[in-house]
Each structure stands twice: as C-alpha cells, then as structure tokens.
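Inputs:
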Amino acid sequence: MAEPHVPHPDLPPPASAVGALGWLRRNLFSSPLNIALTALALYLLVTLIPPLLRWALLDATWSGEDRAACRVNSGACWTFIRVHFDQFLYGFYPEAQRWRVNAVVLFLIFGAVPLFLRSVPDSLKLRWGLGLLLAFPVVAFLLLRGGLGLPVVDTSSWGGLLLTLVIAGVGMTAALPLGVLLALGRRSDMPAIQTLCVTFIEFWRGVPLITVLFMSSVMLPLFLPAGMNFDKLLRALIGVTLFQAAYMAEVVRGGLQAIPKGQIEAAAALGLGYWKSMLLIVLPQALKLVIPGIVNTFIALFKDTSLVLIIGLFDLMNIVHNATTNPEWLGFSTEGYVFAAAVYWLFCFGMSRYSQKLEKRLHTGHKR
Amino acid sequence: MNEPALTPVKPPLWNNPQTRAIAFQVIALIATVAVGLYIFDNTQNNLRRLGIASGFGFLSSPSGFDIIQTLIPYSPTSSYGRVFWVALLNTLLVSVLGIVLATLLGFVIGIARLSKNWLISRLALVYIETFRNIPLLLQIFFWYFAVLRAMPAPRQSLNLGDAAFLNIRGLYLPSPQFQPGFGWVLAAFAVAVGLVWHLKRWAHRRQMATGQQFPTLWVSLALLVGLPLLIYWLAGSPLAWQIPELQGFNFRGGWVVIPEMASLLLALSIYTAAFIAEIVRAGIQSVSHGQTEASLSLGLHSGQTLRLVILPQALRVIIPPLTNQYLNLTKNSSLAAAIGYPDLVSSFAGTVLNQTGQAIECIAITMAVYLTISLLISLLMNTYNRRVALVER
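Outputs:
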C-alpha cells in the first residue's frame, strides 16, 4: 500500500516580504520612481527638521522677563510668549476679574461632561443638553459682562482667546439654527419665502466676509436711528453669524436633498404636520448626513473670527499682532505668529477629528 | 342600522394649507418691505443730519492719493473712478496668479497624497492638515511681517543667481525687453496654435476612419516650441533681459514684486492649495477601481488609463468644488486690506471711503463687483455641470 500523501508544510514567506523589511520594500522602495521619491522626501526632511528643532527647542530661550534674556541664544524667544501669555488668553480683561472667565470655562466643561458619558441615557442627555443650551449663555453673559453685584467689564476690554471663543461660540450656536431655517425656506413650496431665502443666501455667499465686517462697522450706524449705537462686538457677531448662516444653509440643503421623498410622505401619512415631520423625521437624518459639512463650516467660522481685527477688535490674532509691534518686544513676530497658529490649529484639528469620530458613531449603515 | 353619514368636514379657514401659505408669504413680504423702508428712512435722515452727499458724482473728482502698485497709468490727480479700475485690476491680478499657483501646487500635493510611497503621502498629509487649519489672515501676516518685512535693506539684498534680488522693498526680477522683431515670434506661436488645432482634428478623423493613431501630443509640442524658436533664431534673438541694478539706496530696472503682493500671493496659494489637494484626492478616489481594471484588461497602458479613463471621470467630480475654491481665493484676496496691498477693498472700500465718507456707494460698488464675479462663475459652473452630468437611464 502506498503511503498516504502528506503535503509538504508551507514555506514561510520570504524574509524580504514580511516584517519591517517587507514594509519598507512595499511602501518606500517598490520601483525606481519610488526610490527617487523616497530620497527626495528624506532630503527634504533632513534639510528642514534639524534647523527647525534647533530653532524651536534646542537653541530657544524660555526664561527671563524681558527681551535682554533672548540675546544669548540664537533660537526662538518663547519668553515673549510667556510674558504675554495672560494677555493672549484674556486680552485687556481686568486682572482682578479674570477668575470670572475661568469660572465660565469650568462651568462649560463640567456642564458638558454628562453629554459625553456613554452611561448617561439619551433622553436625559437631551434634556440636560437643552438645559445647558438655555442656561449657559445667561450665566456666561452675566459672569463675563457683569451685573448683579459683579463689576461691569465692557466688551471693549474683552480680548485674546476669550474673544475668539466668544465670537466662534456665539457664531456657531446662532448660525446653525439660522442656516437650517434658511435651508428649509429654500426648499419651501411657497415662492415668496423661497425667493427671499435664495436672495439672502446668494448675497452673503457672494461677498467676502471682510466687506460684510466693513459694512457692519460703517453702514450699520447709518441704517439705525440717530443716537442708537450698537456694541462693536455685537456688530461683528451679527456680521459673522449672518455670513456663516448662508454657508450653513447650503450645507443643510445638501442633506435635505438627500432624504428620499418617501420619508416626508410617510410622515404626512402618519398625520405629522410640516414642523413635526421636519423636526422628527427629516432633519435628524439630513443633519446626520452632513455632519462633515457642518463641522467644516464651524472650522471656517473659527478661522474667520481672526478677521474681526479689521474692525479693531482684539481677538487672539490681533492681540498677538499687537504684542509683536510693542517697541519693547520688536523682532519676535515669528514666535508670536507660530504661537497663534498653534492655538488655532489645535482647535480646528480637534474639531475635524471629533467630527470624524461622531460620523463613525452615528453611522447606521445607510452609506455603502 | 343607522350609520352616521360620512360627509367631509371642511377644515376651518386657518387650517387650510393654501390659505396658510398665502398668509405666511404676505406676512414675510410685508416684514421685509417694512424693514427695508425703516432702514431707507433712517439712512436718509442720517445722511441729511451728517451732511454726507449721496450719488456717484464723487467718482469723477480727483483722488489726491498715490497707489503703490498700478497696472494702468495713474497719478494722484486721477479720479476716484480711475482708483476703482486700478484697484479692480490689482484684485484680479493677485487672484489670477493665485489661482494658477494654487492649482499647480494643489494638484501636486493631491497626487502626492495618493502616492504609494508612504513617506510622500505622509508629507502631503502633514502639509494639508497644517495649512488648512490655520487662518489665512494669520498666514498672510506671517509672510508679510515675520518674513518679508524682516528682509535686509536694499544694499544687503539677498542675491538670487545675480538676476533676482530680495530685500525689504520687494522681490526684484529681470524684465524682458522686446526688440522690434519680437512680433514675428508671437505670430509664429499663433500660427503653431492654429496648426495644432487642425492637426488634432485631422488625427481624430483619421483614427475614427482607419483606427490608426497619430502621435499628436509630441508633434503638437514640437510645433508649439519649435516654430517660435526657429523664428526667434531667424529674427536675430529679439529679446533682452533687463537685470535690476543697485543705484543709490534702491534697485532700478526690472520687475518689482512688492512685499504686500508677494506675501498675499504666497499665503493665498499655499492655503488654497491645501483645499485643492483634498478635492483632487477625493475626485480621483471617487473613480472606482473597477474602471482601472477594466481599462487595463482592454489593453490600455497605465498612462492611457489615467488620461482616457480616470481623469475624465475624476474631473467631473473635481471641477465644481475646484471652481468654488477659485471663487474663495478671489474673495479671500480681499484680506489684502489688512496688509495694505492696494486691492478693491483696501483702496476703494478703504481709502476712497475714508476720504469721501460715501460709505454706502463705496461698499455697494465693492460688493457688487464680488457678487458679479461670483454669479458669473456659478453661471459658468452650472452650464458646465449640465454638459458633463451623467446621463442616466
């Protein structure tokens, strides 16, 4: 009887195809072109990274109180940032009152914690979130502005990151609902409402934000009755909000268009009126679809807050710029701008990462 | 058995959808008109109270200020209307140059992002994530205040190959000097363009009829480069370069790119390129891999696959958002006002407005220009979209 056939055991893959070596071969050296590209990239990294590291870390100055401390080392002068740090955060907010800003931030952080806990049931989250949405603006306004026994801090002395976050926060919370309304109006069957919304959206999307801010600073006083004066910050807020609401409307419209008509018809068949079918059936699905677009608009809004410098508000961008023109600290504009860029970058990058996570979590299998 | 009669109940008037729709629209229109009238009335009163003239008469009075960069002849005695044209041309100049640079850089980065080379695609990713998450204004300020304004004085200029010089006053480039015979070279180029057009049509007809291919690309390139070069040589090289020279405290001759323009252009193209790169990547990825496989199995090589199968389909996805970015770049060029590049917003809605006080007219003209550009481009875009839209069964 013949021996039963025993197949040879499989040979392991060649050493050059697995492990670190295989990875290198596949990803960096797979063809002559790839080798050339890798060499180019390595050359770029070698010429850029070491000087950058030397400037930013190795040769940098961190200590000291004035510019004399920065004469010794050839690298960056982070002393400039350290000395101005409080100013960059709070602007010209009176030092004795800065605890109020911190209190607002703490209130927001602790208020928002339950919303991010998985263990809290959704119905409670909704109620908690709505409560926070109503309570936070009132508390924040009272604390920041003053009143009820607290000394009043005029908005003209708000500044730095505080002001940037105020403009971005108010802009975001106001632009989203306004944008949803405009998008619904644009999709409406009523010709007059539709025309009004289309005109509004196309007008704001057609002009640069800077002209809107110019307009709000030089034309708004002409539009209002004599003697009635608006707060500068409020004018900027109105400009930024209306501008971004138009962009938001187009994003939301994209989502509305993606919802099949059957959904609206089914809602109508169940006896839901227009607002109920929109709020309970269409918008939850539409908004989920356009989360990336909404967050992109938020990021654009956050970056656009830097434009309020044009009308003389001291947001993070302007306060840093202002510090670099201080005669006692001339010559450190690079450090200032790098610091400001890092702060803006952290916020924008954080938002985009969070939106990707949210998108994954809310993904219910409609997309293929 | 008595059944109750099922007579349709007419809903009350306020529950009738049609009545409601009409009521809502009338209310909305009345509210809009009322707000408009209120604003108009207030404006009239305010203008009268402040003694500000209205109307566009100011456009013909002399401006009295100088502009640091003008593409058409201009002097302080020119009218405000002339300022408008100078400023508009400056805006268009920086926008067009920015669009060209951003497109080139954006396509390179976008393709690099898709590269199979890990290092290259990571570098592209770092570029994209860095530059699109930093406000444009900050980038403009960085290039202007931290880089270009920190350049040395003219005497210590950075020397770039003895032809171009970089100092605090700007970038000095050699400028071409056209000698009399140069017109022939241009004419030769025009002839070459015409020839290429006919060649392409002939080659296409021949391929359709016989299936034979003709190396159109190489012949066209040879025509486009060769013919003008030949004429250039025959006409006795009618082109000279004027190199900027240091005279006294500054350079003379050549072209000068003012620092305002250079920093605006750098920031605009670097910032917009990050967005274009993402659009290019998304566009190419939107073409399913089956298309590549099908094309390869038909016997097209990889270059043909890219040119004939992938790109035409990817461009359909890429072009609408790309135009949007072009529009954004044009609108963003208005940030010039922050560093004093004499564009529409800075010169016209800024200086002219401050001098004349006619805020409404100046802002209205400026906004109208941007609106016109936006609407024109979206009109073109819609036409293009209709032409390339997928015709479904």
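Remarks. The mean pLDDT of chain A is 85. Residues 309 and 318 of chain A are 6 Å apart (CA to CA).
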